[in-house]
Amino acid sequence: MFSVLPKDCQIVWVTTRGASFWAVNYKITVQPLGEETEQSYFMKVFLHNRGREMVKAEYESTKAWHNVVPGNVANPIGWGELVNKPGRWFLLLEFRDMADEMPPASDFIAVVAAGHKASVSPTGKFGFHLTTFAGDQANDNRWCDTWEAWFTRAMRNTMEAELRVHGPHPELEALSEKILSRVIPRLLRPMETNGRKLRPSLLHGDLWHGNVGAEHGTGVPIIYDCGCFFGQNECA
């Protein structure tokens, strides 16, 4: 952690800022050498057995969203392994003080739309350059030429995960196959045939009200806990 903080800074105090099933959050306040103003950072320590993958994915995802809407996503500072706790991985970001309320829907939607419009897939395809996560569920982000291919694979992975957790379910398995082989092609394929082309947009990947807040004092929408991939913009 100290390797990604300002050089020669002194830690003033550290306090917890909530937790999830697989991470604990902290606010770290430091006093940089030769400066009068303190600086604060947000640190997330992953407790999951896939912590290294998850922290790297969130760092890369946050960086991608910060690049397109910098005022609405905390700047990611760095990530790494805790020296005194091997196997525990941390993510360090700038601290954005958030109020206990949601931003106005119109302001929030405008930020999401701006991110979609400003982003450009580096390959022109659908996917991402590494596996990302929605919670602790991994997204298979290998690049696909079409949105139908990416979405079908994601749905199949979700259905298979459901069966692994709850066991065999003949009705669900029959319905799943029909959705994959009939419903998805009928809904999505027309958008990418006869000269039509979907433009991949950068998506948050885990966008729900628990991953959105309003900055204290300004009301600016803040988006966090990103698990990005490039997809069709209506997926969000």
> How many β strands by DSSP?
12
**Class of the largest domain in CATH?**
Mainly Alpha
Tell me roughly what share of residues is in helical segments.
25-40%
Low-confidence stretches: none
- How would you describe the shape? globular
Gyration radius, to the nearest Å? 20 Å
Tally of structural domains: 2
Q: What is the CATH fold-level name of the largest domain?
A: Transferase(Phosphotransferase), domain 1
By DSSP (H or I, 4+ residues per run), the number of helices equals 4
- Percent in strands: 25-35%
- So what's the oligomer here? single chain
Describe the protein's topology.
Elements: E1 10-19, E2 23-31, E3 39-46, H1 51-68, E4 76-81, E5 89-94, E6 98-99, H2 105-118, E7 132-134, E8 137-139, H3 147-166, H4 170-188, E9 201-203, E10 212-215, E11 221-223, E12 229-231
Helix pairs in contact: 3-4
Summarize the structure.
This protein has helices at residues 51-68, 105-118, 147-166, 170-188; strands at 10-19, 23-31, 39-46, 76-81, 89-94, 98-99, 132-134, 137-139, 201-203, 212-215, 221-223, 229-231.
Structure description:
Helix 3 (147-166) runs antiparallel to helix 4 (170-188). This protein has helices spanning 51-68, 105-118, 147-166, 170-188; strands spanning 10-19, 23-31, 39-46, 76-81, 89-94, 98-99, 132-134, 137-139, 201-203, 212-215, 221-223, 229-231. The protein is of the alpha+beta class and 236 residues long. The protein has four helices and twelve strands; from the N terminus they run βββαβββαββααββββ. It folds into two domains: 2-118 and 203-235, Transferase(Phosphotransferase) domain 1 (Transferase(Phosphotransferase), domain 1, Orthogonal Bundle), CATH 1.10.510.10; 147-197, no CATH class. Helices cover 30% and strands 25% of the residues. Strand 4 and strand 5 form a beta hairpin. The chain has a five-stranded antiparallel sheet with strand order 1-2-3-5-4, with helices on one face.
